[in-house]
Amino acid sequence: MKRLLSVVAMLGLVGLGMNLSAQQTPSSQSSQPSSSSAQTPSSPSDNSSMPQSSQTSATSSQQSARSFEGKIQKSGDKLVLQDSASQTSYQLDDQDKAKQFEGKNVKVMGTIDTASNTLHVIDISAASESK
Questions:
Q1: Which of 59, 73, 98, 105 has its CA at 20 to 30 Å from residue 41's CA atom?
Q2: Structural domain boundaries of the chain?
Q3: Quick check: 123 and 103 in contact, CB under 8 A?
Q4: In this structure, which topology does domain 66-126 adopt according to CATH?
Q5: Model pTM?
Q6: Residue 36: partners with Cβ closer than 8 Å, 6 or more residues away
């Protein structure tokens, strides 16, 4: 019986040691988080994922679909949307969808990549001419 308890205790200590060493590996990159990781072992993994998730949510908020109105025009060999509200030209990632609306006022539903000023087109439809 004592032998069984000794084996269980050893396995528990080995598992705890492996768990602590795995948690200390990511926090060894900076010395300040390692002191907090010793106090709360579950926090480093939560904290390290929180900035990534906040970056992801920030990216998602930038990537939420919205409506743009303007005219599809040729710029070089590419079609662009000349936004009537902001007087900004946006490159269109789906040239095939835009081709049928060249020279027309349209409403584009899409997401914008601010780094490249590109609209990722979800849908293009003719704008209402009531303006």
A1: 59
A2: 2-62, 66-126
A3: no
A4: OB fold (Dihydrolipoamide Acetyltransferase, E2P) (2.40.50)
A5: 0.50
A6: 43, 44
